[in-house]
Amino acid sequence: TATVIDGKFIADEIRTRIGSEVRRMKEGIGMVPGLAVIVVGHRRDSQTYVRNKMMACAEVGIKSMVAQLPEDCTKDQLLGALSSFDADPSVHGILVQLPLPQHLDEGKVLDVLRPEKDVDGFHPLNMGNLAMRGREPLFIPCTPKGCIEMLLRSGVEIAGKKATVIGRSNIVGLPTSLLLQRHHATVSIVHAFTKNPELITCEADIVVTAAGVPNLVRGNWLKPGAVVIDVGTNPVEDPSSEHGYRLTGDVCYEEAVQVASAITPVPGGVGPMTIAMLLSNTLDSAKRVYAFT
Ligand code: NAD
């Protein structure tokens, strides 16, 4: 059976290192990294994600602040919050918690965020530089970066391997496929229009799935010995659990664990890594601003 890749353990190690780097910065130049989060509306999941990010910042000594805007806020209010964080020199990273309410255009919002503070790595300039050979983005999106970090720290070779990414969203699937190419994998992409996706996944040495569909990836979709990174975080009804639901990935874990050589659990896999990478991007941004090495 597969080795379980413990994302929480790896993320804890990374957070400890970030904590000591933040202390060293504070002692060296009297500055700490700062992260600003803009939330629109009161989606329960968004509120939870934001709270977790704030707590993680506090734990490593990163200063964090939140602008909570009403569900019906105007585009100008949102841009106002963005530009005041943009002008604040103690803020090194700004993120807009997605999804935004329908009436606000996510693309337009990302356009006005300066790439230098785009710690989510979603600005077209950062995304474009990620896609182009010979160029370096200022920030790499957190979830894809966390997936690669888990592979590297688990000793999985990427160069020359076949990788299949399931999903092509701007925040996970697309940047993950670009990042795997940067690491010299041969990458196939499967999405909602793909016919017979299992024929593509079963050739892959590495499968990263971010479709948002519980139990999509069955054991017989996998090549024996494949490494499986499950980004899916899907609430499914479960009367026996405290809130009436539990989180499950895109992978049918019980089947996959029999076939794969390594697999990430949900929860406790990619989720904790995403937050660790956000802290890491914020620290890197502050280091860049203060030229602190
Ligand atoms: P999305 O809905 O924006 O994109 C889903 C992608 O999957 C699309 O490209 C779609 O074409 C593809 N897809 C949908 N159904 C499919 C199917 N049946 N077969 C093949 N492809 C299919 O979602 P997203 O924002 O990319 O998130 C994907 C999943 O990852 C969700 O479960 C989300 O909760 C989770 N997520 C987890 C983290 C984390 O930190 N762990 C971060 C972001 C997203």
Q: What is the CATH domain class of the largest domain?
A: Alpha Beta
- One letter per element, helices H and strands E, the order comes to EHEHEHEHHHEHEHEEEEHEH
Please tell me the total number of domains.
2
| Percent strand | 15-25%
Helices and strands in order:
Layout: E1 3-4, H1 7-29, E2 34-40, H2 44-60, E3 63-69, H3 75-87, E4 93-96, H4 106-112, H5 124-131, H6 142-153, E5 162-166, H7 173-182, E6 186-190, H8 197-201, E7 206-209, E8 227-230, E9 234-237, E10 245-248, H9 253-259, E11 262-263, H10 270-290
Parallel strand pairs: 1-11, 2-3, 2-4, 5-6, 5-7, 7-8, 8-11
Antiparallel strand pairs: 9-10
Helix pairs in contact: 1-10, 2-10, 6-7, 6-10
Describe this structure in words.
- The chain is of the alpha/beta class and 293 residues long.
- It folds into two domains: 29-114, 3-Layer(aba) Sandwich (Rossmann fold), CATH 3.40.50; 142-271, Rossmann fold, CATH 3.40.50.
- It is 42% helix and 16% strand.
- The protein contains ten helices and eleven strands.
- A six-stranded parallel β-sheet has the order 1-11-8-7-5-6. Strands 3-2-4 form a three-stranded parallel β-sheet, with helices on both faces. Strands 9-10 form a two-stranded antiparallel sheet.
- Strand 9 and strand 10 (245-248) form a beta hairpin.
- Helix 6 packs across helix 7.
- The termini are far apart.
- The structure holds nicotinamide-adenine-dinucleotide.
